[in-house]
Amino acid sequence: MRIRLSRRVTLAAAAVALIGATTAPGVAMASGGKPSSPKPTVVLVHGAWADSSSWSPVVERLRKDGYPVRAIANPLQGLTSDTAYVSSHLSAVDGPVVLVGHSYGGAVITNAAASDPDVKALVYIAGFVPAKGETVGELAAKSSPPIPLVSTAVPGGTDVSIDPDHFREVFAGDVDSTTAADLAVAQRPANTKAVSDASVEEAFRTIPSWSLITRQDHAIAPDVQRFMSKRAGAHIEEVNASHAVMISRPGAVTHTIEDAARSIR
Fold it and tell me: Are residues 249 and 161 in contact, defined by beta-carbon separation less than 8 angstroms?
């Protein structure tokens, strides 16, 4: 009896070793011995007057939860060229993608996702969701009062940024004054083509979308966000936050992104 038990234990140990040797690195075993699907890559696209570092608190949380993450440096040179830039980066990502856009970045992902079948979910964070033929400028005009901007002539056009004296009230009302002042100094201006180029795609028609609406937003009015999100048929979540929600409420942003990621099968 002892000999038979010992042989069974030995065979079981060998089977476990064999399973461990043949399981691909990074792929967990689900119940029943079948490997579970790897988590989708989350690709983050910032908007005007920000940069990819603005996603840092969200990136930290997503990585902790096991998601591969990429934060793309959006050029902010015009919807047409920015779409092409983001599309080129998407082509280098293997496997399913959750594509996330903040503010103007929402318009970019609406267009870039249409050419990439690996994008399985769209997430708009206080984002513009333009219809075909619409411009970001037309949608922005629905918000009031208008954003106080500073214009600078540059080769090939005009760049605009938020007047630093008004940055906190417009962009980061729920961020501490020191951080808001730093953001105002570091803000990246956007070329006026970002608001004048017409949208040519509506990826949200075929790709499930989520939208996090910021109720204390003075850059894109909450009612405008709701209008665009409902028109797109997005799953809507809301939070009491400013436009800089990825900095002031990164947990809420992460929650919305992971809701979208869990929908992918």
Answer: no
C-alpha distance across the termini of the chain, in Å: 47
**Rounded (10°) CA dihedral 68, 203, 73, 44:** -30
Largest CA distance in the chain: 89
CATH superfamily of 41-262: Alpha/Beta hydrolase fold, catalytic domain (3.40.50.1820)
The alpha-helical segments, DSSP class H, found in the chain are: 2-22, 56-64, 79-90, 104-112, 136-140, 167-171, 177-186, 193-196, 222-231, 245-248, 250-262
Name the one residue in this structure whose structure tokens are 């070793």: 17
Give 153-205 pLDDT, tens digit per residue: 999 899 999 999 999 999 999 999 999 999 999 999 999 999 999 999 999 99
pLDDT tens sequence across 94-150? 999 999 999 999 999 999 999 999 999 999 999 999 999 999 999 999 998 999 999
Q: Report the alpha-carbon angle 75-81-87, nearest 5.
A: 85
Q: Where are the domains of the chain?
A: 41-262
DSSP 202: -
| 129 CB neighbour count, 10 Å cutoff | 28
- How far does CA 147 lie from the centroid of its chain? 23
